[in-house]
């Protein structure tokens, strides 16, 4: 591959973390629609950068093209038209982005035949308004790696909420919200109770910002937002994932838990789990401290104890709502049945997955037998 020039410095660890999560989600998203022979699908990267960093590490536009390359055979067989929209506001970076994409497509002529693409050089709000009808019309994946909070206002978010088949990932500088959130510039973008925001420990700043944003989504909306905190030096920023379909949420949670097996919610030890393993006792506690997975098991048992009888669909949605991969629920349900003898369900497995929860012939009924 010919390296053209590129970012003025290498990507740091925080940038690589968000790029990895976006790439992995693109890998999960693309085949969903390709294998359904969806006629047209769209990917939008509206803060695209130059394509590569100083060391030739691929940025988001090249990672998108690499994912398309992975599924190129299916794209041709299923006759899917993939449309790629890139935007880079700075003229010099936009020129480098064009060169990077053109060179990639010269070296990968199969990808060139499979896609149509446009590269814009516009202010975000201008290009977003121009492309929104396309996002509304087709199944779309939107990636917004903004520097700051320019996208993050209620008008932009609600525009995505009204679309039918849009998954999105956007970056937000949450530390800046805490620092400057009371200023007019920030309050024009986000309506957040700054006093409440600052009352929680700083390490949860990104999660608190996402909760504040979620509270502004219309009641009854199917849109779910999930945060992933990213620490860079003393600053804590993060990604916000949004989707309406539970299967999309399931895939995202699988990706972030694989990326960060400790907690699935940050690229650092946000809950201090490393210093409090399951067997370590607090000086004044009589029971072992619990990590995030331990707490989820307790929450699951509490739900079962309260409702007595539930279905696999209820537990499927409960698990996603609490930000866990389905394996955490499945493993603990098996333990509660086979070892603790607290629950009963027919068969070997409780079938906590989308297909069985929504398309199975009959639900799996899980009954609480404990105390």
From TrEMBL:
InterPro entries (UniProt xref): Tcm_partner (IPR031009)
Name recorded for this polypeptide: Three-Cys-motif partner protein
């Amino acid at each position: 591959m010919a390296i053209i020039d590129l970012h003025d410095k290498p990507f740091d660890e925080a940038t690589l973390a968000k790029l990895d999560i976006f790439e992995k989600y693109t890998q999960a998203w693309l085949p969903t629609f390709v294998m359904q022979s969806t006629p047209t699908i769209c990917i939008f990267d509206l803060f695209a950068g130059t394509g590569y960093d100083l060391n030739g590490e691929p940025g988001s536009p090249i990672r998108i093209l690499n994912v398309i390359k992975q599924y190129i055979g299916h794209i041709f067989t299923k006759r899917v038209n993939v449309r790629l929209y890139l935007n880079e506001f700075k003229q010099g970076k936009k020129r480098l982005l064009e060169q990077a994409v053109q060179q990639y497509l010269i070296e990968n002529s199969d990808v060139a035949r499979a896609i149509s693409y446009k590269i814009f050089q516009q202010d975000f709000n201008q290009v977003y308004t121009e492309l929104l009808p396309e996002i509304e019309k087709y199944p779309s994946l939107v990636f917004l790696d903004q520097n700051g909070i320019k996208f993050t206002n209620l008008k932009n978010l609600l525009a995505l909420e009204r679309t039918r088949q849009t998954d999105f990932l956007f970056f937000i500088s949450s530390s800046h919200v805490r620092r400057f959130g009371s200023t007019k510039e920030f309050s024009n973008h986000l309506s957040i109770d700054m006093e409440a925001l600052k009352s929680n420990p700083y390490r949860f700043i990104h999660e608190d910002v996402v909760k504040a944003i979620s509270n502004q989504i219309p009641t009854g909306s199917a849109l779910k937002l999930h945060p992933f905190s990213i620490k860079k030096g003393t600053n804590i920023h993060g990604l916000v994932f949004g989707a309406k379909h539970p299967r999309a949420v399931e895939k995202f949670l699988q990706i972030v838990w694989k990326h960060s097996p400790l907690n699935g919610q940050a690229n650092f030890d946000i809950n201090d789990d490393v210093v409090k393993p399951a067997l370590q006792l607090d000086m004044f506690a009589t029971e072992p401290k619990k990590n995030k997975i331990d707490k989820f098991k307790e929450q699951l048992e509490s739900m079962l104890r309260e409702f007595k009888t539930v279905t696999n669909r209820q537990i499927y949605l409960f698990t996603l709502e609490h930000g866990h991969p389905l394996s955490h629920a499945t493993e603990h349900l098996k333990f509660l049945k086979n070892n603790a003898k607290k629950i009963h369900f027919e068969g070997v497995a409780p079938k906590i997955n989308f297909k069985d929860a929504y398309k199975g012939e009959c639900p799996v009924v899980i009954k609480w037998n404990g105390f």
